[in-house]
Task: inverse folding
């Protein structure tokens, strides 16, 4: 049975941890909480990341805070599978280093992304024939997540669906005196797919249409896309998928490659907006 180690802190969801404890596919080997946070009494407490890795086959990082590349690097060097609750704040150079370590260790990593739970964005559920043309208009959620972080999650989910490296981006940004921001981005990929994104700070209804050789898919939504497809057990389901990928040895199914492309795209967007003095 797969042994899971939980790395957390005061932001970790204890109810989720208890659901994981009852999971039939794995067992919780131990829990390490950083800082002054207290591990719940019904879990085996471990007292260092090293002890956690020694007793576990896979590490679940269940902190809502972004963790350092040093900790991720340490986990990968110990050849432990890793699940990240929060997308890490890493530079392009750091992501490249982690990709090399990941491939060298032959392990699975998984980054939780709410956009992955949009059914139309699931490349395993929808066998879209490439190239694709995707047109998407939505608005930033703006309350619980920063626009740049939300954009990174969205682009990373789209990269997962397109399954190709991006080739170029064109960015247009507009800001009025009331600080209403509209960002329009065109992304071209090496497999000839094209994505057109328009995202605003103003709360408006949105839509998405996906064109492929097999037809057209369209869906509309009235709230920011980030929260338009709630799933009561999203995080639990994500961890179940993580375990399934480990068991089926689908090591190419999840990696930092999509994050690398997403990071590069968002950096280009940020640089363009910063040059034009548009807050992002």
Result:
């Amino acid at each position: 049975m797969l042994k899971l180690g939980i790395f957390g802190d005061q932001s970790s969801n204890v109810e989720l941890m208890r659901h994981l404890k009852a999971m039939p596919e794995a067992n919780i080997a131990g829990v390490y909480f950083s800082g002054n946070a207290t591990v719940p009494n019904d879990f085996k407490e471990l007292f260092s990341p090293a002890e956690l890795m020694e007793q576990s086959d896979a590490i679940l990082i269940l902190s809502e805070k972004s963790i350092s590349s040093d900790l991720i690097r340490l986990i990968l060097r110990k050849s432990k599978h890793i699940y990240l609750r929060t997308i890490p704040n890493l530079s392009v150079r750091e992501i490249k280093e982690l990709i090399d370590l990941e491939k060298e260790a032959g392990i699975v990593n998984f980054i939780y992304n709410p956009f992955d739970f949009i059914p139309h964005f699931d490349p395993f559920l929808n066998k879209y024939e490439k190239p694709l043309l995707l047109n998407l208009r939505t608005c930033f959620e703006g309350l619980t997540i920063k626009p740049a972080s939300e954009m990174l999650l969205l682009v990373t989910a789209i990269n997962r669906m397109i399954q190709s490296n991006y080739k170029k981006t064109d960015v247009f940004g507009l800001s009025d005196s009331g600080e209403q921001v509209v960002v329009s981005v065109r992304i071209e990929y090496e497999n000839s797919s094209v994505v057109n994104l328009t995202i605003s700070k103003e709360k408006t209804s949105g839509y998405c249409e996906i064109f492929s050789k097999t037809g057209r898919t369209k869906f509309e939504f009235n709230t920011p896309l980030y929260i338009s497809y709630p799933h009561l057990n999203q995080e639990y389901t994500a961890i179940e998928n993580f375990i399934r990928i480990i068991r089926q040895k689908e090591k190419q199914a999840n990696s930092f490659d999509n994050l690398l492309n997403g990071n590069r795209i968002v950096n280009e967007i940020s640089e363009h907006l910063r040059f034009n003095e548009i807050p992002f």
